[in-house]
Fold this sequence. Notes:
By secondary structure, the protein is of the alpha/beta class. 32% of the residues lie in helices and 19% in strands. It contains 6 helices and 5 strands. A 5-stranded parallel sheet has the order 3-2-1-4-5. The model is unreliable at 1-7 (pLDDT under 50).
Amino acid sequence: MPELDNKELDFSGERMVPGKALDNFFQEHFQRYQFARCFARDKYMLDAGCGEGYGAQYLAEVARKVIAIDNSAQAIEHAQRQNSQANLEFIQMDATVASFDAESFDVICAFEIFEHLKDYERFLAEAKRLLKPQGISIVSTPNKALHSPGRRSPRSPYHFREFYLSEFRELLLRYFS
Length: 177
């Protein structure tokens, strides 16, 4: 495995890096975690696609346990260095094939990862498997009408697929009420 640059993550547009992105862009991302925190108190949570970990750390301040996963070894290594709490764990893992028992989590957060997944339906099936019966999933993805209007393919080179609001709603309703 190549040696990773352990100092900092660069902001490439692929994942949010606080202090590297424009403040309004960071605030837009952080607001998702502020909303999710309303559901986090004393809960077992999964942060899928956690990036560098700022959101998982914020949730862990009130959650019983937060497990944060990302497929990037560099992001996970950075997150582990930057965030250390007894109830917070960072694991490099593919969110579409998570190695947790069924019904392990009260809350699953998946912010801005759908557009990065080739098999987003596999992720939704996995999230449904991992949620406890009364659990909730809190998700977000760019609105194609705003992010890549009039384009056949996404504007971002890191995105496989973007959704219009109606498409995303229909997709989610196939897995969740």
